[in-house]
């Protein structure tokens, strides 16, 4: 299905919530629970593994827009041909673990290639946390120029960038926040903040300029579908309430 009205409105109001089932999660019962919770909790969209069987499973149980993340062209093309709604060029962590690092040119080249191949699809690009803020801004400007729809920031406690870490204590979410703040003031493309966000920090991400927050562990670590649903509802409520606070502060 194309991205629905809720998707469009949530991004417009900067209260979008992406639920991540796990890029390497192929456990069907677990995926079904997470997708069901996302649907009932009124999440904006769901990020699933770039696998045709998982895409088919997800499509059979939800009307929410579906996203897959990959840096591998073949996986991306298969996802597009399987009817995925959103492609995210990302999921770098598995390559970092093998000491494989991506350069700005690599991401520019792949982003341009996919944009030309599928001009109709919502396309998001993750900016590697190993890039300096200056490099991220330069890359973001290029991505905006070629028509990328969304940009995602990430963070990791496994990589130290002194220019970043001097500003805030070293956490995944803080690294993502610094990038989000800088990028949201440089480009008009919606920014997705992801990596380590919780119920107590999603509103901070929004105040730093994020239009959407990606959540995984905060949901996946909960036992029972009811707890997952309640947490997603609470996350959405926190993002909406922050809208009301911002509106009041204008006057």
TrEMBL record:
Per UniProt, which keywords does this protein have? Chloroplast, Plastid
The record, for Gene3D superfamilies, names: Aldolase class I (3.20.20.70)
Q: Does the keyword Chloroplast apply?
A: yes
Cellular component, GO, one term: plastid
Q: Which InterPro entries match?
A: Aldolase_TIM, Uncharacterised_Ycf23
* Any Pfam family matching the protein: DUF561
Q: Is Plastid there in the keyword field?
A: yes
Q: Where in the cell is it found?
A: Plastid
Give the top-rank taxon of the lineage listed in the UniProt record for this protein. Answer: Eukaryota
Q: Which PANTHER family match?
A: PTHR36895, YCF23 PROTEIN
* Sequence similarity: Belongs to the ycf23 family.
Q: What is the designated name of this protein? A: Uncharacterized protein ycf23
Species of provenance: Boldia erythrosiphon
| Encoding gene (name) | ycf23
């Amino acid at each position: 299905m194309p991205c629905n009205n809720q998707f469009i409105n949530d991004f417009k109001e900067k209260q979008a919530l992406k639920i991540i089932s796990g890029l390497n999660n192929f456990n069907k019962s677990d995926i079904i629970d997470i997708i069901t919770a996302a649907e009932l909790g009124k999440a904006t969209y769901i990020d699933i593994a770039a696998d045709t069987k998982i895409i088919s499973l997800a499509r059979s149980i939800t009307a929410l827009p579906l996203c897959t993340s990959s840096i591998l062209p073949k996986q991306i093309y298969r996802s597009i041909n399987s009817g995925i709604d959103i492609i995210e060029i990302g999921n770098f962590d598995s390559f970092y673990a093998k000491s494989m690092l991506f350069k700005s040119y690599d991401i520019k080249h792949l982003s341009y290639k996919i944009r030309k191949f599928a001009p109709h699809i919502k396309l998001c690009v993750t900016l590697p946390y190993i890039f300096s803020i200056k490099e991220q801004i330069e890359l973001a400007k290029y991505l905006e120029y070629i028509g990328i729809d969304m940009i995602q920031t990430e963070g990791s406690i496994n990589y130290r960038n002194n220019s970043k870490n001097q500003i805030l204590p070293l956490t995944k979410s803080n690294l993502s926040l610094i990038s989000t703040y800088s990028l949201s003031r440089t480009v008009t493309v919606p920014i997705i903040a992801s990596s380590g966000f919780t119920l107590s920090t999603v509103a901070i991400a929004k105040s730093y300029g994020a239009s959407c927050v990606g959540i995984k562990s905060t949901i996946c670590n909960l036992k029972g579908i009811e707890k997952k649903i309640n947490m997603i509802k609470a996350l959405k409520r926190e993002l909406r309430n922050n809208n009301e606070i911002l509106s009041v502060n204008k006057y």
